[in-house]
Amino acid sequence: MIAVKKLEENAPGTDDEKAFSTKVQNLMALEHENIVKVVAFCREPLMKLVQSDGEFVKAHIIESLLCYEYLQKGSLHDYLFGM
User: Are the beta carbons of 13 and 20 closer than 8 angstroms?
Assistant: First the structure.
């Protein structure tokens, strides 16, 4: 099983394909007991209709997903702040 995180469309620092790929590859190489392992990623360029000044226009959007190892014991938020 995996957990998937969808990044904000065209999130800062995700515009350059090579730089993003290098960052994710570095995250995937990390191994520590307190870090959830990144196992895969996906980037897909899309043309999407977005509203701008009351009109719909076509925009080039990049969707980015990170796939993490799934941990069954809940979220860090729950551990820090209670259920």
Answer: yes
